[in-house]
Amino acid sequence: MLAAELDSAATAYDTVITQLTSEGWMGPASAQMAEAAQPYLVWMRTSAAQAEQAATSARAAAGAYETAFAATVPPPLIETNRTLLAQAISTNVLGQNIPLITQLEAQYGEMWAQDAATMYGYAAHTAPTAEVTPFTEPAQTTNPAGQAMQGAAVTEPPAHRPARARRLRSRNCYPPHPPHCKASHHLAHQPHPQHRSQTR
């Protein structure tokens, strides 16, 4: 369940980013956002695969336990064998209980061998299930100093804001210096029509 949810979330996440960067938001900023999101997508898909592996291992371990439990001699049978043996030994005054004692000992030996084989088999089947890859933390996808930078921008003196705006506009020209950016730059440095009329 967890593996399927992680894989579905990764697919939806990837779809949204692809649509956003190819239709509604294009430019250097969107490309940087998509690049920053890639490690998180990889982490989600890797975690989904690890969750599936862990679930498979858990199911295998549970199945091995059920098999071992069914194959193990019930403890009450072992206790009964030991009780009968103790009684046979305590009343074996003339050796009349030797055949019974031998039979009970042989029966106990078979029980011991069955339980030992079951436990060895259980250990062999569950050893691979214990090798689960540890989960990792997702990669950092944001700038830890982002909030501080935003706060600095808000408190920036008004005199510095025009220069900052020009830098941001120049960064948004992609590729560098396309025709519309050159035109806007040229118009920005032309005197106002009213000013031209006054200078004549």
From TrEMBL:
Residues 161-170, 179-200 have a biased composition (Basic residues). Residues 155-200 are annotated as: Disordered. It comes from the Bacteria. InterPro entries: PPE_dom (IPR000030), PPE_sf (IPR038332). Residues 2-130 form the PPE domain. One of its GO terms (biological process) is response to host immune response. Belongs to the mycobacterial PPE family. PANTHER family: GLUTAMINE-RICH PROTEIN 2. This is PPE domain-containing protein. The lineage of its organism: Bacteria, Bacillati, Actinomycetota, Actinomycetes, Mycobacteriales.
